């Protein structure tokens, strides 16, 4: 059952604060692979499921770990879900949920506009290794979604709240209603919009994250999270049937500690990423560039995003520029990095520096040309993950200088 936070920052602040072993303001790191018990009978009861982490009984860190639970509680609070658990990467969070929810092969309906790695997982890997088939659809066409769902066969509907890289916004409440009417679970990837959107409160059953992006913010850690009901998280840790327990992508407690220190200022970071992205998108448009940004009135889902978003966090930190050809895209990125030092040519997002990549020849290369076209990825699409360091005006003058140089 989702809780209903009016503001994710308030929910995070209200969640349990674990102190350190010696009264430290931060929790101690429970850096143990294994846990001891007072007597052999207790261990038997833990393995039988009679005693568990809710009563402070732990067995082994591939199963629940207290430090990973601390981070997971904060992420659950942010998403307004009953529970969450963290994984080694976004991809392991996504694949574990799909394995958990698809029984005996199974069918997935997914958005055609998803991150290239997820597309490859669904289009190529899962059919080959597990007989899990996916029908890709344009999720903004609700009739197509209805048609693609096969009652009794489709296990889940998967889409990104704001798609990577084309920034298409999904109508989470309407999609959830369509899926639920047909008994299908809804899994939403909220990597591009933490704090901004709370898919769990809009109807999603499961929310997944690539924590490697905004939640981390440091560009130094790969991590993921699965947020949903306590039943789902517990089922994923089941000793006989749990995808997290048996495939083993659970997070290292040292990594969980690092990340837990970054959650309290995620709200501030998201506000700054969004404010700068909005300012640059507006100015880039005035400079005559073809800009895709859901904060702009001309974005097809601007009003939809506004209607779903938590107030005060803006429209996200990613702006796309359609430079039409790869050649022009490369020229602009080179000048922005090597000429004026506006940002770095690198994949990923959510870092404090601006990161720039040409999606068609980087993070979406897993897709064929016609699949990219359907997902709104033109050859010259430059994805900018707008950073939050330096000053807005300093960065904008770097952008303007680079633009002037390539237009000479
Ligand atoms: C929307 C989305 N989902 C999943 C992933 C994969 O995450 P990770 O690199 O943490 O495995 C990415 C990475 O770019 C992403 O953008």
The CATH H-level homologous superfamily of the largest domain: Type I PLP-dependent aspartate aminotransferase-like (Major domain)
Low-pLDDT windows of residues: 1-5
Q: By helix and strand content, what is the structural category?
A: alpha/beta
Shape: globular
Separation, N- and C-terminal Cα atoms: 58 Å
Reading the helices and strands in chain order gives: HHHEHEHEHEHEEEHHHHEHEHEEHEH
Ligand names: pyridoxal-5'-phosphate
How large, in whole angstroms, is the Cα Rg?
Answer: 22 Å
- Provide a count of the helices: 15
Beta-strand content estimate: 5-15%
What is the residue-averaged pLDDT? 96
Provide a descriptive summary of the structure in words:
This protein has 15 helices and twelve strands. With 408 residues, it is of the alpha/beta class. The chain folds into two domains: 8-30 and 65-261, Aspartate Aminotransferase, domain 2 (3-Layer(aba) Sandwich), CATH 3.40.640.10; 266-407, Aspartate Aminotransferase, domain 1 (Alpha-Beta Complex). Helix 1 runs antiparallel to helix 3 (66-79). It starts with 7 loop residues before the first helix and ends with a helix. Mean pLDDT is 96; it is low at 1-5. Bound molecules: pyridoxal-5'-phosphate. Residues 89-91, 115, 117-118, 160, 164, 189, 191, 210, 212, 222, 224, 363 line the site of pyridoxal-5'-phosphate (PLP).
């Amino acid at each position: 059952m989702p809780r209903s936070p009016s503001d994710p920052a308030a929910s995070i602040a209200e969640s349990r604060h674990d102190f350190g072993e010696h009264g430290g303001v931060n929790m101690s790191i429970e850096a143990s692979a294994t846990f001891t018990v007072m007597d052999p009978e207790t261990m038997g009861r833990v393995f039988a499921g009679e005693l568990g982490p809710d009563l402070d009984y732990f067995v082994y860190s591939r199963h629940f770990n207290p430090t990973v639970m601390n981070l997971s509680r904060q992420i659950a609070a942010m998403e307004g879900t009953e529970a969450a658990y963290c994984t080694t990467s976004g991809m392991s969070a996504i694949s574990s949920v799909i394995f958990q929810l698809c029984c005996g092969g199974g069918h997935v309906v997914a958005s055609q506009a998803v991150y290239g790695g997820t597309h490859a997982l669904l289009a190529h890997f899962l059919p080959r290794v597990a007989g899990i088939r996916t029908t890709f659809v344009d999720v903004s066409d609700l009739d197509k979604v209805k048609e693609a769902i096969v009652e009794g066969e489709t296990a889940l509907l998967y889409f990104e709240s704001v798609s990577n890289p084309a920034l298409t916004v999904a109508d989470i409440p309407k999609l959830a209603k369509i899926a639920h009417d047909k008994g299908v679970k809804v899994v939403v990837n909220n990597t591009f919009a933490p704090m901004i959107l709370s898919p769990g409160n809009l109807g999603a059953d499961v929310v997944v994250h690539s924590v490697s992006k905004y939640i981390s913010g440091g560009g130094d850690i790969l991590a993921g999270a699965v947020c949903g009901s306590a039943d789902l998280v517990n089922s994923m840790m089941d000793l006989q049937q749990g995808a997290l327990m048996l495939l083993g992508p659970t997070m290292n407690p040292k990594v969980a500690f690092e990340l837990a220190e970054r959650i309290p200022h995620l709200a501030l970071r998201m506000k700054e990423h969004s404010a700068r992205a909005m300012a640059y998108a507006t100015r880039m448009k005035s400079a005559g560039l073809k800009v895709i940004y859901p904060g702009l009135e001309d974005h097809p889902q601007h009003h939809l995003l506004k209607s779903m978003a938590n107030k005060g966090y803006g429209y996200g930190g990613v702006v796309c520029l359609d430079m039409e050809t790869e050649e022009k895209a490369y020229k602009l990125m080179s000048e922005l990095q090597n000429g004026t030092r506006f940002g770095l040519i690198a994949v990923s997002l959510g870092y404090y520096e601006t990161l720039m990549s040409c999606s068609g020849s980087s993070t979406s290369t897993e897709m064929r040309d016609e699949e990219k076209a359907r997902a709104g990825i033109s050859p010259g699409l430059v994805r900018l993950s707008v950073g939050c360091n330096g000053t807005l005006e300093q960065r904008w003058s770097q952008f303007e200088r680079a633009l002037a140089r390539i237009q000479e």
